[in-house]
Design goal:
By secondary structure, the chain is α+β, with helices and mostly antiparallel strands. About 30% of the residues lie in helices and about 40% in strands. The chain contains five helices and six strands. The chain has a six-stranded mixed β-sheet with strand order 2-1-6-5-4-3.
Length: about 140
Amino acid sequence: MNHKDIVQQISAAFGSGDIPAILTHLHPNVAWESWNVDHSAQQAGLAYLLPRHGVAEVPGFFQALAPLKFHVFEVLNLLAGGNQVASEIRLHVELPNGTHVHDEEMHLWTFDEQGKATRFRHYIDTQKHLRAAGL
């Protein structure tokens, strides 16, 4: 199975809420939202963009998303090259405080030779998400 197919499976599992299926595609030491530079959403404490290290910490990402109501989560396109896949996403979520975020974002997946995701990052309009969260 190629990396693009894996990301399609991960996206389908996300859409159906099948977190265990997503975890099977992750390397044990996956770097989730790990950045080498300052990240304003992480500094502000936006729970669903905090860094997580290792597959055991990734469920915390999904727990942080649990209070959000997803109206739209649509994969528009997948771009693959080398050991990475970028997925273009259209998103409309409602936060617990009643605010809404309409966004288009990129998700970047990096894979090892065994087809396990070693890194995952969101590329989003951070200011939009911070504003909606009241941070």
